[in-house]
Amino acid sequence: MAAGAGLLVIFLAWFAGPGLFGIRSETQGTTVQAEVVQPAPCAAGGATETVKFEFGGKPMEASLNGCGHGKGERLEVVVPDGASGDAVSVHAADSAAGASDARRPVGLALLVFSCFAGGMYVYLVVRGPRRLATA
Q1: DSSP line for 3-65
Q2: Which of these, 108, 122, 127, 110, lies nearest to 16 by C-alpha position?
Q3: Is residue 58 within 8 Å of residue 9, measured between CB atoms?
Q4: For residues 106 and 102, what is the distance between their CA atoms, to the nearest angstrom?
């Protein structure tokens, strides 16, 4: 019974998809070509640069959470959906926070091991204590 429950959990987890382990592969926004207006050195933590780009037919400036680019350097950034106004924050198109293709197989392997351990525990509890035979 415990083995069947473990297999059912693994089967459901496999078909639940990447969302089960918090993996999001789609980008939330539009990728545009931007130019660095005000670069920032990487010496201090939390450095932000200013970039300019054209979005929705009008020029915009935004803060880029990055550092180390040169003034006038062109790069692709992702503009969030519905971005407007002066306080827009963008990120580089080739970076994604928290994305790792290894998370799903590792998470699934850990789930398999935990189901196996739970099944073994149930087996040991149901079997009961063993007594040594005396000669």
Answers
A1: HHHHHHHHHHHHHH-GGGGT---S-SSEEEEEEEEE---TTSTT--EEEEEEETTEEEEEEES
A2: 108
A3: no
A4: 6
Supply the DSSP symbol for 92.
E
Distance CA 59, CA 41 (A): 25
- Dig out the tokens for 114 from the structure: 């935990």
Number of other residues whose CB lies within 10 A of the CB of residue 114: 13
Determine if residue 35 is left, alpha or beta; phi over 0 gives left, psi from -120 to 50 gives alpha, anything else beta.
beta
Whole-number Å distance between alpha carbons of 31 and 79? 6
Q: What is the pTM of this model?
A: 0.51
User: Nearest-CA neighbor of 78 among 29, 24, 25?
Assistant: 29
Residue with tokens 């959470």: 65
Give 12-29 pLDDT, tens digit per residue.
877 776 566 665 555 578
Which residue has tokens 């803060």?
Answer: 63
Q: How far is the C-alpha of 3 from the C-alpha of 11, rounded, in Å?
A: 12
Mean pLDDT, the chain, whole residue set:
80
